[in-house]
Amino acid sequence: MELTSDALVNSLLALGAAALVTTLWIWPRLARQRPLPVLGRIGLLTVTQVSVLAVLALSVNNSFGFYTSWDDLLSPGGAKLALTSNENHKGGTPVSDALVQPTNEGGLETVTDLPKGPPEEVGKVESVRVTGKETGLSDQMFVYQPPEYFDPKFALVRFPVLLILSGYPGTTLNLMKELPVVRTAAELQKSGKMPPTIVVMARPTVAPPRDTECVDVPGGPRAESWFVKDVPEALRTTYRIGRSASSWGIFGYSTGGSCAMRLAMRFPGVYGVTVGQHGDFSVHEDQFTGGSLFGGDKALAQQSDLVWRLQNLPAPPLAMLVVSTRKEADYQQTVQFVEQAQQVAQANPQFTVESMYLDDGGHNFDSWIRELPASLEWAGAHLG
């Protein structure tokens, strides 16, 4: 049974209930103060307590998405490195040493509102495991391929890519069950409001349960290198996708939005388009980041501060959309960042910054869902 499956939770609930009933039933028989009865009482209590704690732990994990599979839990980031230089998965059978491998992880089978029909009519969503050559990290992702990807007329076409990041903590599955990314993208593409685009759904948490904020931690997880080197390289070996930065976009909400804007501003040669929903403009360090992410190096931390970058570094060749609500706690900070960025953009036409604000709403899925169609449409219009 998968780590995140309801069957596992229900099995443990049944085990706990059976252990409780058994304890109440035979407890009088184990009342004597002899070694075997004492061991029996300890065993029954242990089974009951462990079952209850396991159910609680699984419920918390399923809600917040710290771990998405048994491999994730037992050896996070520890998948074997798989090397390949071949372009595979172009419609044939993936090879065993590919950097992108089909997987049953992630819970794709639980998503009920995906487009129904053959791939050449409605597109296709795959659950894959991506492995990086640079960092050795590995994680499960979902990839949506539009109907045109399977049309022989487009056999020589390389499609634009939009990498979408969930928040922290949260599973990649949230991008389909809580935020209807695939359904919305498919509807926009079908209506012509968004060009045919490969949509890759991932999470920012590469070393669960630690929040790395998508930076390379000195002596720790290299989350930044994962997203700017490993993921693009692996996807290019597998799918017919663009190679220029103008055909690559990165999008996210909450922590994923912070990561999206930061990665694009730091590496505009990788991601030429970015959308940040309710993101931060500097790296916040707390108990979830495991303390300092930069080893106390202030100069290194500055490089990930987007306001500092606006004031001290050349404007990046980048199209950026900043999305929030007027009721969000950091709304004024967001407005200040956008105003500064737009001032920089006036003298640097290769850098464009736009904003979109809802009049109400907060830091929640209700707001992100309402912002999603316009955000995706904007991203599609700016992808090469």
Write the layout of secondary structure elements.
Elements: H1 6-26, H2 35-64, H3 70-74, E1 100-102, H4 119-122, E2 124-131, E3 138-145, E4 161-165, H5 174-177, H6 181-190, E5 198-202, H7 223-236, E6 248-253, H8 255-266, E7 273-277, H9 298-303, H10 306-312, E8 318-325, H11 331-346, E9 351-358, H12 365-382
Structure explained in plain terms:
With 384 residues, the chain is an alpha/beta fold. Helices cover 38% and strands 15% of the residues. It has twelve helices and nine strands. It has helices spanning 6-26, 35-64, 70-74, 119-122, 174-177, 181-190, 223-236, 255-266, 298-303, 306-312, 331-346, 365-382, and strands at 100-102, 124-131, 138-145, 161-165, 198-202, 248-253, 273-277, 318-325, 351-358. It has a nine-stranded mixed sheet with strand order 1-2-3-5-4-6-7-8-9, with helices on both faces. Helix 8 links the parallel strand 6 (248-253) and strand 7 (273-277). Helix 1 (6-26) packs antiparallel against helix 2. Mean pLDDT is 87; it is low at 76-95.
The major β-sheet equals: 9 strands, mixed
Q: In DSSP terms, counting alpha (H) and pi (I) runs of 4 or more, how many helices?
A: 12
Portion in helices: 25-40%
Summarize the helix and strand pattern as letters: HHHEHEEEHHEHEHEHHEHEH
**Overall geometry:** globular
Structural category is: alpha/beta
Question: From the alpha-carbon coordinates, what is the Rg to the nearest angstrom?
Answer: 23 Å
Unreliable runs, pLDDT <50, ≥5 residues? 76-95
Distance between the termini: 42 Å
Report mean pLDDT, rounded to a whole number.
87
Strand order of the largest sheet: 1-2-3-5-4-6-7-8-9
Beta-sheet strand percentage? 5-15%
